[in-house]
Design goal:
This protein has 232 residues and is an alpha+beta fold. The chain is 27% helix and 25% strand. Helix 2 packs across helix 5 and helix 3 packs antiparallel against helix 6. The longest helix has 21 residues.
Amino acid sequence: MEIIRLKAPRPWPRPRRVTGWDFPISGVLRARDVRQRRLGALEKLLGSRQSRREFAAPLTLQQLGDLLWHAYRVRRRLRRNGVWESRPCPSGGGCYPISVVALRMASLPKVALVYYAGHHAFGVRELPTRGVLRRAVADVGRCLKAGKGTILWFVADLGWSGGRYENPESLAWRDSGALLATIGLVAEGMGLNCCGIGVHDLAGLRGFLRLEDWMLGVGGCVVSGRDRSRPG
């Protein structure tokens, strides 16, 4: 087993000016108003949450929007000494460098969606061929069979968090874990199935989205509706 030791992040004396990387999209899809605003008591969610690997019921666009609004929306943003944000899950320095890319929506099977947390909207990028999606699903399938589930891939912009920290790499992984945990709890409260994926990067999508070298795939999860005919 090879152990890679990441350097400890250290805040810059003064935050550096950075420009966030923009995904190549062809349009914007406004998410619908949040329908499911109540998730139940935290104690109940902590008692019932588990990794649920049965992905038999496709996720709807309404469910996807509600899920990401609860887990990752921007509650507050300040532009002073860089950009600082407040969202439901924690992030090192309030940077929130992770973007969520959604694949395999039943209602939009030929596109990738990028969630814009500050606007509760999705950037739309058409998939050029079925092969791009097939390769991404195959990469995920090496550790988790996605069935009819939607794949949420986390992509960290190290350049963004690098504006506040030297050696930001380890923060991206901590942010990924915090986001995964929050999505898992929200999914449980919404009655959805959710399980994290072990694969970090999706090579086919990197080329398709033209990601720069400082954009790091940091895992993600598969989410679906829950088949009510099954126990649990």
